[in-house]
Specification:
The complex is a heterodimer of chains A (112) and B (115). With 112 residues, chain A is mainly beta. In chain A, 0% of the residues lie in helices and 56% in strands. In chain B, strand 5 and strand 6 form a beta hairpin. The chains are: A mainly beta (112), B mainly beta (115). Chains A and B meet through strand 4, strand 5, strand 9 and strand 10 of A and strand 4, strand 5, strand 9 and strand 10 of B.
Chain lengths: 112, 115
Amino acid sequence: SQKIEQNSEALNIQEGKTATLTCNYTNYSPAYLQWYRQDPGRGPVFLLLIRENEKEKRKERLKVTFDTTLKQSLFHITASQPADSATYLCALDRAGGFKTIFGAGTRLFVKA
Amino acid sequence: EAEVAQSPRYKITEKSQAVAFWCDPISGHATLYWYRQILGQGPELLVQFQDESVVDDSQLPKDRFSAERLKGVDSTLKIQPAELGDSAMYLCASSPGQYGTGELFFGEGSRLTVL
């Protein structure tokens, strides 16, 4: 069956370091992949989208890579700040846009 | 900035009671989604609308859940009767593209507690 896996354990890092979060998927050929941020008790907020023919995308301190051979995406936050502490969700879409599927998310804690 | 509006923000109900959630998507967004998110898990798609038509409700428990988007604008999700396992955050999202290509805009969610 189709599956999206994100680090189930929380990631704890020191302020100023780079946080790297992983999203792996199986039995799936997504047209594109998205990353969302979710704060406790709030709805997810879109961060970045990367298409299957793109290797890397950047936005300010954020960088996403997409390896369709490894079936993996990496999400990086450089120069992390305590305000970056949140849960980060990976989401996959099939071609044609039907049904966006979310992973369980990885909780990130950035310590000052 | 345009937002997806949801109400109520919080709802506490007893099992076997009926409950309804309302969502008003961003104006002009053709695709509307209802997701359920259990604490510690990712959002799970319940139903997806393209305008007023349902395009995916394969994960909607149809014996107790119903959803409608009569005029292709706002939407209502109903649960009747509510069960203990329905306690979760119900998230509404919308997107501008045909069949929901790309970024989803989420509301703040409706937190349901069933006692």
